[in-house]
Design goal:
Blueprint (H helix, E strand, L loop, with lengths): L5 H14 L4 E5 L15 H6 L7 E5 L3 E5 L4 H7 L6 E4 L5 H8 L5 E4 L6 H13 L3 E4 L4 H5 L12 E2 L2 H4 L3 H15 L3 E4 L2 H8 L1 E2 L11 E6 L4 E5 L6 H7 L3 E4 L4 H4 L7 E4 L6 H9 L3 E4 L5 H5 L3 H28 L7 H13 L6 E2 L4 E4 L22 E7 L1 E3 L2 E2 L2 E7 L6 H19 L2 E2 L4 H14 L9 E3 L8 E6 L18 E4 L2 E4 L3 E4 L2 E7 L8 E6 L17 H18 L5 H10 L4
Parallel strand pairs: 1-5, 3-4, 5-6, 8-13, 11-12, 13-14
Antiparallel strand pairs: 1-2, 2-3, 7-9, 8-10, 10-11, 15-18, 16-17, 17-20, 18-19, 21-28, 22-23, 24-27, 25-26, 27-28
Helix pairs in contact: 14-15, 16-17
Organism: Qipengyuania profundimaris
Protein name: Aminopeptidase P family protein
EC number: 3.4.11.-
Length: 600
């Protein structure tokens, strides 16, 4: 019998835990690869609680349960999760492990799925629990899977080769680089667990996860340049098998855990940031010597090839037309009062699909009207959907996945009739000044993203305001829209990567913002490529080449607050917008573009 209510599901989980002799259980949003986005089969937290955010976790004890989310989801978690069933707990003020240590009775046994949690979390929780007389144990099979009767199966979609001409490097070349690293470090093999790392290494793409073109799989890469790919057999087409070649052995994905026992006596490198605890347990039980070291594909993946640079430019040129056509449509229809957030997101998807080669969205579109725009990670659904009010600000953050690139763009626009308030214009202009400041900046090679972050905030700070998210994240090439290790954010923040030096060839977002709770939000986002700076310098200097070309809303700009240099940037940017998009547009769309790109 299907459990229709969240109360019934919580009760069912408690009964299952009781059968297993467990006093509690920790439920993260995760899969066996610690992915940011997970397949429907792995949406255990959503099934149990109703929470649909992309980051969070829950703890279920015999008589208490709690939801743990950070400030991005303070509103959403209260809308989606029943407060009579779960306490709301804020991270990082607390954490699941800290909460359990206080709430669980002495002697309690707490279960966790070692194939969904990182090893460092498991080890730190185990130490904390030991001080409190608690025991942390890995479960044999996830208890939620035991009660989730209609749990979807993992995707059976076929995987496919990724064109070497678009990648700019062969898989053999990439594997040789990994092999050189293994030999240099004295390792026999490394486990590649992050799905986008597997995809990059083998020049392979898939359809197993929404928004990210990856296939559920693992790789064991060896120091002799060979590799073993663990993937469901039905995913491997003759074309993929031919592409992989003789140096890559294909084995069933369900043999991966057992295969780790074959590495007895071998020195195996594993990345604690991307590999679940179960992999460490299996390697150690099999007699391998496990060394904790970084995934050797992360940095080469982040530094794009010239072919990937051009692919991004080509993808952005198509994507810019779609977003521009959408903004023109929105400017006509939304002031009439008949467009809601879901309809706007669907229309934007329609414009992207018109190009004929869209593979997927790169993330769920943030289509945010009025007060919803003040929620940086708002996700519209049937319950939250509202009409876009005339005479208001609307924010849309969206992206597309194309064979040659991954896009991510945010535009904030005024929906007429009437004029925006002076405060809205002033705040938007400060956000714009920060965006331009970062876009124009030159900096020494190996400067960190953390060192640049204040440039995007300085004009907001001078106005006594700030924003609570990072300024920029790395972006993949027809891969993950959020790709590490580089990041532009306040040093010492909650996210890793701010101390990673920026290198020529990296792609990042430039997205400062401002959010007034309950009223409106502003964000301006373009993607940028790190390039050598066109200046005479002592030593190597870098700068940013803007990749995203879509008009910015001049209704929300106070020209009097801009310097001559900033006005110059605005006009040069819009000249490029018209030059890149104009040849692809015609009729009234082209007329609209010309009007939007006129000098400020």
């Amino acid at each position: 019998m299907l459990m229709q209510t969240y109360e019934a599901r919580l009760d069912g989980l408690r009964k299952e835990l009781g059968k297993r002799g467990l006093d509690g259980f920790v439920i993260p949003i995760s899969d066996e690869h610690m992915s940011e986005y997970v397949g429907s089969y792995a949406q255990r937290l959503k099934w149990l609680t109703g929470f649909g955010g992309s980051a969070g976790s829950a703890v279920v004890l015999k008589d208490r349960a709690a939801m743990f989310t950070d400030g991005r989801y303070t509103v959403q978690v209260r809308e989606q999760v029943d407060g009579k069933l779960y306490d709301y707990e804020d991270v990082p003020a607390t954490s699941p492990a800290k909460w359990i240590a206080e709430a669980a009775p002495e002697g309690a046994t707490i279960g966790y799925d070692a194939w969904l949690h990182g090893i460092e979390w498991a080890e730190s929780a185990e130490k904390l629990f030991a001080k409190k007389g608690l025991k942390l144990v890995p479960v044999d099979g996830n208890p939620i899977d035991a009660i989730w009767d209609d749990q979807p199966e993992p995707s059976a979609a076929e995987a496919a080769p990724h064109d070497e001409a678009l990648a700019g490097r062969s898989s053999a070349d990439k594997r040789a680089e990994v092999a050189d690293w293994l030999k240099r470090e004295g390792y026999d093999a490394t486990v590649i667990t992050a799905l986008d790392s597997v995809a990059w290494l083998l020049n392979m793409r898939g359809k197993d996860v929404d928004n990210t073109p990856v296939a559920l799989s693992y790789v064991l890469a060896h120091a002799d340049g060979t590799a073993e790919l663990f993937i469901a057999p039905e995913k491997v087409t003759p074309a993929l098998a031919q592409h992989l070649g003789n140096a890559v052995t294909v084995r069933p994905r369900d043999q991966f855990e057992a295969s780790l026992a074959d590495l007895e006596g071998k020195t195996v490198a594993v990345d604690t940031n991307h590999a679940v605890a179960g992999i460490f347990h299996a390697l150690e039980a099999g007699g391998a010597k496990v060394v904790r070291d970084g995934d050797p594909t992360i940095m080469p993946k982040a530094i794009k090839t010239p072919a990937e640079h051009q692919g991004h430019r080509d993808a952005q040129a198509r994507d810019g037309v779609a977003v521009s056509r959408f903004l023109r449509w929105l400017g006509i229809e939304a002031p009439k009062g008949g467009v809601d957030e879901l309809a706007a997101a669907a229309k934007l998807r329609e414009f992207r699909e018109d190009c004929g080669i869209l593979r997927d969205a790169s993330f769920d579109t943030i289509s945010a009207a009025a007060g919803h725009a003040a929620l940086p990670h708002y996700k519209v659904d049937e319950d939250s959907n509202i009409p876009i009010p005339p005479s208001s600000i609307y924010l849309v953050d969206s992206g597309g996945q194309y064979d040659d690139g991954t896009t991510d763009i945010t535009r904030t626009v005024w929906i007429g009739p009437g004029e925006p308030s002076a405060e809205m214009v002033e705040r938007n202009t400060r956000v714009l000044k920060g965006h331009i400041q970062l876009a124009m900046q030159y900096f020494p090679d190996q400067t960190t993203g953390g060192a640049l972050d204040a440039l995007a905030r300085m004009h907001l700070w001078q106005g006594g305001v700030d924003y609570g998210h990072g300024t920029g994240h790395g972006v993949g090439s027809y891969l993950s829209v959020h790709e590490g290790p580089q990041r532009i954010s306040k040093p010492g923040g909650a996210f890793p990567g701010t101390e990673t030096p920026l290198s020529e060839g990296m792609i990042l977002s430039n997205e400062p913002g401002y959010y007034k709770p309950g009223e409106y939000g502003i964000r301006i986002e373009n993607l940028v490529l790190v390039v050598e700076a066109p200046i005479a310098s002592e030593g190597k200097y870098l700068g940013f080449e803007t990749l995203t070309f879509v008009p910015l809303d001049r209704t929300l700009v106070d020209k009097g607050l801009l310097t001559e240099a900033e006005i110059g940037w605005w006009n040069r940017y819009h000249e490029q917008v018209e030059a890149i998009l104009g040849p692809q547009m015609e009729g009234e769309d082209f007329d609209w573009l010309k009007e939007q790109c006129a000098p400020l």
